[in-house]
């Protein structure tokens, strides 16, 4: 592994940071999160047109920039630094790579250029709020998490073909909650169970955002910068992503995309933690007690030093995870992305909590900017964790504890 970044990678980080610093102060972030879309569409278009952010990790053949997981992680670190509300996670990190891995050539040609250009936004709808399971981050994703049997989760059935016609269309029914960006996405990838008991399998379906029978409700969330939605499918028509015989490929692709998502989100959490720590250091230099800045107190210095070490360790783990995702299979270390995500989320939670403490009385007011990082830490862990499950599954994936590891994983 070469730990040095290229000039191009430094330029991606530098350009994105300069743009976001101008457009994404805390007040702008809060205002964008409270819009109907949950983000600033004008800023998203600017990021797409000037930097190619939505297609950063997509091949140039489909309108992307042609970069890899490392560049995407660097971009996520910068968006995490300002807690940018955007479709980056659902569109670029989840939907686009799934369409690339599973879609037919016709589906790729239709979806990927529009996603890369920022003309379409996407969301991944997983039933039961089990996104972490579907992405193989907190457990194996080869079970019935999409809804086993004849009821529950999201079900898909194939209609009988018309006489003399082609195979019938797919109809979907069920509900998914905690769908990131699902309330405003232009296209949804819906994970659904099909085949009943005899041929039980999970497939992905493409559903337009304006499909008849599709009901989307934005859920109230503690973290406004990560909007979630309840998606109801009431006999909705959906197009199968890829081939029907590729059910095994769906599980594999979700796990691979989950590793990339873990690396990107770990970098995002590191950016948020680093920014929160920087703001706290500046504050303790200015706040005085007993006639001197509280930054001069040894106890405060020790607390900040401990946080700095944790942030740097989390950053190293996130960078390694991004490298591991893009490395050849024989060189990659299994479990590294999940472990990096666990460490980064835990670090963000610790830094955000200390930031509130060190800001004193004003830090405990709910409206203070320090709470943006605290809410992101809490909600991301609820969405993708908990941390102990991430670590346990990463250890199992890496084979650290042998055959008995899975039985020892806490519930």
From TrEMBL:
Q: Which domain of life is it from?
A: Bacteria
| A Pfam family it matches | Acyl-CoA_dh_1
Task: State its cofactor.
Answer: FAD
Is the NAD keyword given for this protein? no
Acyl-CoA dehydrogenase/oxidase C-terminal domain location is 263-396
Keywords of the record, alphabetical order, are: FAD, Flavoprotein, Oxidoreductase
Provide the GO MF annotations for this entry: oxidoreductase activity
Q: Which InterPro entries match?
A: Acyl-CoA_Oxase/DH_mid-dom_sf, AcylCo_DH-like_C, AcylCo_DH/oxidase_C, AcylCoA_DH/ox_N, AcylCoA_DH/ox_N_sf, AcylCoA_DH/oxidase_NM_dom_sf
Q: What is its EC number?
A: 1.3.99.-
Looking up Gene3D superfamilies in the UniProt record yields:
Acyl-CoA dehydrogenase/oxidase, N-terminal domain, Butyryl-CoA Dehydrogenase, subunit A, domain 2, Butyryl-CoA Dehydrogenase, subunit A, domain 3
**Family according to the record:** Belongs to the acyl-CoA dehydrogenase family.
Protein name listed in UniProt: Acyl-CoA dehydrogenase
């Amino acid at each position: 592994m070469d730990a040095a970044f290229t000039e191009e990678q430094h330029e991606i980080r530098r350009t994105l940071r300069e743009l976001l610093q101008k457009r994404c102060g805390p007040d702008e972030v809060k205002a964008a999160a409270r819009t109907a879309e949950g983000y600033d569409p004008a800023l998203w278009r600017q990021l797409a047109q000037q930097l190619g952010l939505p297609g950063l990790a997509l091949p140039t053949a489909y309108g992307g920039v042609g970069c890899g997981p490392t560049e995407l992680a660097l971009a996520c670190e910068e968006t995490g630094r300002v807690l940018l509300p955007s479709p980056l996670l659902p569109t670029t990190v989840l939907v686009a790579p799934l369409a690339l891995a599973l879609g037919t050539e016709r589906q790729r040609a239709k979806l990927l250029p529009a996603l890369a250009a920022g003309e379409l936004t996407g969301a991944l709808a997983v039933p039961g709020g089990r996104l972490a399971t579907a992405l193989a981050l907190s457990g194996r994703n080869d079970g019935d998490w999409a809804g086993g049997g004849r009821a529950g989760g999201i079900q898909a059935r194939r209609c009988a073909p018309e006489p003399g016609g082609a195979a019938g269309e797919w109809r979907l029914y069920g509900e998914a909650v905690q769908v990131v960006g699902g309330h405003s996405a232009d296209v949804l990838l819906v994970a659904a169970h099909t085949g009943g008991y005899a041929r039980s399998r999970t497939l992905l379906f493409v559903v337009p955002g304006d499909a008849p029978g599709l009901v989307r409700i934005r859920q109230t969330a503690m973290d406004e910068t990560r909007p979630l939605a309840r998606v109801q499918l009431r006999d909705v028509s959906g197009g199968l992503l890829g081939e029907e015989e590729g059910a095994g490929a769906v599980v594999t692709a979700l796990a691979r995309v989950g590793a990339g998502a873990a690396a990107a989100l770990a970098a995002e959490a590191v950016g948020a933690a680093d920014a929160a720590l920087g703001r706290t250091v500046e504050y303790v230099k200015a706040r005085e007690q007993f006639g001197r800045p509280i930054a001069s107190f040894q106890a405060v210095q020790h607390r900040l030093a401990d946080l700095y070490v944790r942030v740097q360790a989390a950053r190293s783990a996130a960078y390694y995870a991004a490298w591991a995702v893009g490395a050849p299979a024989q060189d990659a270390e299994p479990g590294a992305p999940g472990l990096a995500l666990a460490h980064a989320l835990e670090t963000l939670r610790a830094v955000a909590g200390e930031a509130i403490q060190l800001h004193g009385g004003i830090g405990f007011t709910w409206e203070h900017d320090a709470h943006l990082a605290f809410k992101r830490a809490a909600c991301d862990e609820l969405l993708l964790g908990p941390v102990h499950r991430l670590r346990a599954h990463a250890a199992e994936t890496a084979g650290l504890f042998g055959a008995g590891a899975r039985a020892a994983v806490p519930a």
